[in-house]
What does this fold into?
Amino acid sequence: MAQVLLLTRALTPSSSVLPGLELLSHQIKVMSPEPTALITAPSADLILVDGRTDLPAVRSLCKLMETTGNTSPVILITTEGGLAAVNHEWGLTDVLLDTSSP
It folds into this structure.
């Protein structure tokens, strides 16, 4: 069973960030996307970053994770409109739309 870390400011369940996420049998740990939270973050097989809002802050966080030696894949969850801002400099492994189905 994989360990998934979801970085989000959402106050609602993780399924509101990405539909079907709670259907997975993986263990999902939800944390605030703050640089200081990364210090205490548990090890994860996959990091999901909620980029549906505040893309500049998310970009900085993703770049920080890349420069600090993160070895886990980082997947950005964003809206269709957010795709225009994302590029290879963010240090992402992949991107998912927030409307992706299970």
Q: What stands out?
A: Strands lie at 3-7, 27-31, 46-50, 74-78, 94-97. The mean pLDDT is 88. The radius of gyration is 12 Å.
